[in-house]
Structure formats: C-alpha cells, structure tokens
Write a structure and sequence with these properties.
Blueprint (H helix, E strand, L loop, with lengths): L14 E10 L6 E11 L4 E5 L6 H8 L7 E6 L2 E2 L4 H7 E4 L11 H12 L5 H10 L15 H13 L5 E5 L7 H18 L2 E6 L2 H7 L2 E6 L2 E6 L1 H7 L3 E7 L5 H5 L4 E7 L2 E6 L2 H11 L5 E7 L3 H9 L8 H16 L1
Helix pairs in contact: 5-6
Bound molecules: adenosine-5'-triphosphate and magnesium ion.
C-alpha cells in the first residue's frame, strides 16, 4: 500500500519548535531568554540563527540539546521530543560549543578515544580515521592538540561532534574569534560536512556575512523572538527600500521629512533617524535641503541586505563585525572553559 499522496503527513523537520519559551530565574524577576519561538527546520538544511549578543541563540541550542530545560512549549529534534526522549535526541545530535572543549595534553586520537568513551561507542576507530582523513588531520593524529593551529582545533572539534554519526549538528558561533581566512576555511568545512555526511546543521552567528554566505535558511532572533525567517534572498526581498541613516545634533521635523517625495517612513532612535525610501539617490537632494547641514553628524545609505532587514525590523544593528570585542569574548570563553 502506498503511503504517499496528498493525504500523507509532511515529512518531519529535523528540528521542530513550537511556542517555546525559556525563562532563567523566577517569573517577574528572571530573564525571558526565549519568547514563544516557533521554527521548523527541514532535514538536510544548513540553518543559521542570526542575532545580536544576548538574543537567545545559545539558549535555544541548550534547550534543543537537552542541556537546559524548557519553561513552556515543545521542541523535537530528529523526530524525538527533547524533554521526554532526551536520550534518543542525544544519540542523534552532535554539538560544537562556542568554548574550546579539547584537551590540550591529549593527541587528536586520544581526544577521539575520549569522545567514543563518553558516547559509549564500540567500533569507532574506522569512523575516526575516516573523519581525520576528511579533515586532513590524519598525519597529525598523534600530535598533542596543544600544538594545533586554531583552524585545526576547530576541525577536530567538528570531527568529535560527528564521531557517533549524528543526523543533526549544532554549532554555536563556530567562527567566533577566528581570523578571516580561517573563518572562510570553516565555511567550506561546514558546507562540505553537510554535503558529505548528510547532516542538518543549526549554527548561530552574529556575522551577517557568514549567515548570508553559509546558510540556506536564516532565522533572525532578537530579544528571544524570531522576528524573521527565510532564505537570505527572501529576507532581503522583504526590505525593498533603501535606508538612509542620519545622525543629527538635535531633533528633526519628522512630519516635514515624512512628506518629502519618495520617503516611505521615518523612524527615530534618539538622534539617529532611519529613513526608508524607494531610492536613496532620489531622496537625498531634498533631504539635504530639508535638514540644516550643521545638524548632520553622520549620514549613510544602506542598500537592501540582511543588515537592513534587521535595521528595518528593530531600528538597531546586529553589531557583529566588532573584532575587538569578539577576540575578548573568545579569550574569556576559553579561560572559562579551561577553568
Ligand atoms: N544561565 C543563565 N542565567 C541567567 N540568565 C541567562 C543565563 N544564560 C543566559 N542568560 C540570559 O539570557 C539571554 C540570552 O542569552 P544567550 O546566551 O542565549 O544569548 P546569545 O544570543 O547566545 O548571545 P551571544 O551572542 O552573546 O552569545 C541574555 O539576556 C542572557 O543574559
Ligand atoms: Mg551565545
């Protein structure tokens, strides 16, 4: 008997999240880190969760991997409920944490052995060798990880996460603190892993460029809420307009600006103004006429991009490309991870 056809239920997504909320601390005083998140990530997708610091990205990964409990709502991974069937979920997922988890005094092979023990795997050696070969680490497998470059360590972390043949892998800020060439190398690795091993990848990032280059679908998260979801092109198409961002010394005459031909909307955040316009080029001459030059501290034009999607939805920037802060955070996390 055929089960296909219009009445068959849709194939389960690799990750299904419904009305999921997570509160740290007590009601009223705690932090609502996830606020009724609903998401469906199809199998075999590289999905990016893009959002600023504190948006709730790590929290969502912790909930989906069973590290954190759920306050309300439901979530399933690889077809199993993360609360009721957490062991089944754990057997099917891999996790690459933002922190460094490798033991420096162990070789790559010993780290793999340790991972196999932790996972209760018996015949892991062949798979481990296959992974080492795939990541071009086979000839360094007996070197201590302390002697590895940052890129090599990251590859080994991904190899560890893949050892037990998971169907879904989570990567929390996989490229944080990495230099640009290593970051790009890692993009290729993630795409390759997805193709080669057929896994669904959920990664978090606050780099817009990374989400755009790497992810088939993106969920934009802000203050615990998914505020937009789709392919990078679908998201960019949402903001058809240009955005003119203007910083002034004092307030502006908003009704006057709004009335300028071609202006669709004027939004204020303090003395920063976001002006939505069909074409920035058409509006700018009139705008510069309407705003006294001594008022203007800064002016910029943003063409449709993922950054403008966020700017348009929230009036703020994701603020991902601040390398100094990233490096600080990275070292802070490393110190924390090493105890
Ligand atoms: N263990 C915890 N106890 C209390 N509050 C927490 C805890 N972990 C996270 N939070 C809070 O929950 C919110 C979401 O944090 P989360 O770490 O999920 O954000 P994020 O998107 O991963 O940010 P980042 O980009 O900085 O890693 C923040 O307000 C954070 O302070
Ligand atoms: Mg985080």
């Amino acid at each position: 008997m055929s089960v296909s056809g219009p009445s068959a239920p849709p194939a389960a997504g690799a990750i299904e999240v419904r009305e999921l909320s997570k509160r740290y601390g007590s009601v009223g005083r705690g932090v609502l880190a996830l606020d009724r998140v609903t998401l469906r990530i199809p199998r075999g997708t590289v999905f990016g969760l893009l959002g600023p610091n504190g948006a709730g990205k790590t929290t969502l990964i912790k909930v989906l991997t069973g590290i954190s409990d759920i306050t309300s709502g439901t979530a399933s991974v690889a077809g199993f409920d993360v609360q009721r069937e957490s062991l089944r979920v754990r057997a099917r997922i891999g996790w690459v944490a933002a922190e460094v988890i490798l033991d420096d005094d162990f070789s790559a092979w010993e780290n793999l052995w340790l991972q196999a023990k932790l996972q209760g795997l018996r015949d892991w050696q062949e798979r481990a060798l296959e992974l080492l070969r795939y990541f071009s680490l086979a000839d360094r497998k007996d070197d201590k990880v302390g002697q590895y470059s940052t890129g090599m360590r990251k590859k080994l972390e991904i190899a560890l996460a893949l050892l037990h043949q998971p169907t879904v892998i989570f990567m929390d800020e996989p490229t944080i603190g990495l230099d640009v060439p290593t970051r790009r190398m890692l993009w290729e690795i993630v795409t390759g892993v997805h193709r080669e091993f057929g896994v669904t990848v959920l990664l978090t990032t606050h780099y817009i460029e990374e989400a755009d280059a790497l992810c088939e679908r993106i969920g934009i998260i802000d203050q615990g809420r998914i505020i937009a979801e789709g392919t990078p092109d679908e998201l960019k198409a949402r903001v058809k307009a240009d955005l003119i961002v203007l910083e002034t010394r004092d307030g502006l005459d908003v009704p006057r600006l709004s009335a300028l031909p071609g202006v669709q909307e004027v939004r204020a955040q303090g003395n920063e103004w976001t002006i939505r316009a069909g074409s920035a080029e058409a509006v700018l001459p009139n705008l510069l006429h309407a705003v006294p030059p001594e008022q203007i501290r800064r002016i910029s034009v943003e063409k449709p991009s993922l950054e403008t999607v966020f700017l348009d939805l929230t009036g703020r920037r994701i603020g991902g490309d601040e390398p100094m802060r990233d490096v600080r955070r990275f070292y802070m996390q490393m110190r924390r991870a090493r105890g």
